[in-house]
Amino acid sequence: MTSGLKHLPGYFDRAAQEELVALLREALAKAPLYTPVMPKSGRPLTVRMSNLGSLGWVSDRGGYRYQPTHPETGQPWPAIPGPVMAVWRKVAQYPHEPEACLVNYYREGAKLGLHRDEDEEDFAAPVVSVSLGDTAIFRIGGLERQGKTETLKLSSGDVLVLGGPSRLRYHGIDRVLSGTSTLLKDGGRLNLTLRRVTKP
Ligand code: MD3
Ligand code: FE
Fold this sequence. Notes:
By secondary structure, this protein is an alpha+beta fold.
């Protein structure tokens, strides 16, 4: 069940990765990474998050949703940088712009449990992800949580496109391999996840 899954290893070369990190640092100065909590339990996630774009994905005691402002600063999310919009235009094969760019930051020990991205109205659009920094062990299954899964290493500069029949597959991050990249001064992994949220 690999149709609609496209892994583009080394899509960004080192210089382009450095440029992306510089742009992300500027954006994160305005919209700082924060620690989301799980709905109901209030248990903190191990991944820190922020967003760029007109809508950002948030998780709090009230649930998961998209909203136009940062939950801690109350400010609108910063714009998605040009080079990030450019990846979408190049690989998404979808005629409308992404509205959300979730920024996930994984330090040593952070992980993201198996889940589906299903808080969007429009599943016709793919999800496009960009990996920066330490290599991650990405796990992908099928359309049901109980199904078989396989793993894929995501390295700095890689782009992953999940569209068509793969759009609603279960996936997660098992772990991040510390010290596998020199891109981020403090180590860890930054992931950008671009999504269309509303029906155009
Ligand atoms: C496969 N993030 O934020 S990106 C997420 O690396 C998320 O931070 C991971 O899953 C990360 O929701 C994985 C790759 C990805 C994104 C969306 C998908 C894989 C996907 C949607 C469907 C199937
Ligand atoms: Fe996801």
